[in-house]
Automatic annotation (TrEMBL):
<feature type="transmembrane region" description="Helical">
    <location>
        <begin position="33"/>
        <end position="54"/>
    </location>
</feature>
<keyword id="KW-0472">Membrane</keyword>
<dbReference type="InterPro" id="IPR007208">
    <property type="entry name" value="MrpF/PhaF-like"/>
</dbReference>
<protein>
    <submittedName>
        <fullName>Monovalent cation/H+ antiporter subunit F</fullName>
    </submittedName>
</protein>
<dbReference type="GO" id="GO:0005886">
    <property type="term" value="C:plasma membrane"/>
</dbReference>
<dbReference type="Pfam" id="PF04066">
    <property type="entry name" value="MrpF_PhaF"/>
</dbReference>
<keyword id="KW-1003">Cell membrane</keyword>
<keyword id="KW-1133">Transmembrane helix</keyword>
<feature type="transmembrane region" description="Helical">
    <location>
        <begin position="66"/>
        <end position="85"/>
    </location>
</feature>
<dbReference type="GO" id="GO:0015075">
    <property type="term" value="F:monoatomic ion transmembrane transporter activity"/>
</dbReference>
<keyword id="KW-0812">Transmembrane</keyword>
Length: 91
């Protein structure tokens, strides 16, 4: 069984994204709120790209829908959380 260079590169990218996701979790556990937002944003991007790779490698079609929802709703949640914090700090 021979694997094409594209399949090998997708597996390498999958491993790199797993490491990036772990680094994003590490960033998210910092004490400041800004670093938490950056870490969670990075984690959502990593998970979305991992889901797209799963669709390409294994043919699981619904993972692309989940990735699309994650990419669209991630910034909405970040903006909502930032607005709540801004209102909370102003009194």
């Amino acid at each position: 069984m021979s694997m094409s260079i594209l399949t090998i590169s997708e597996y390498v990218l999958l491993a790199a994204l797993a490491i990036y996701a772990l680094a994003s979790v590490r960033i998210a556990t910092r004490k400041t709120i800004g670093m938490g937002l950056v870490g969670i944003s990075g984690l959502s991007i990593a998970v979305a790209v991992i889901l797209i790779l799963v669709k390409n490698l294994y043919g699981i079609a619904f993972s692309a829908d989940i990735a699309t929802a994650l990419v669209l709703l991630g910034p909405v949640g970040t903006i909502a959380f930032a607005r709540v914090l801004r209102g909370y700090s102003n009194g």
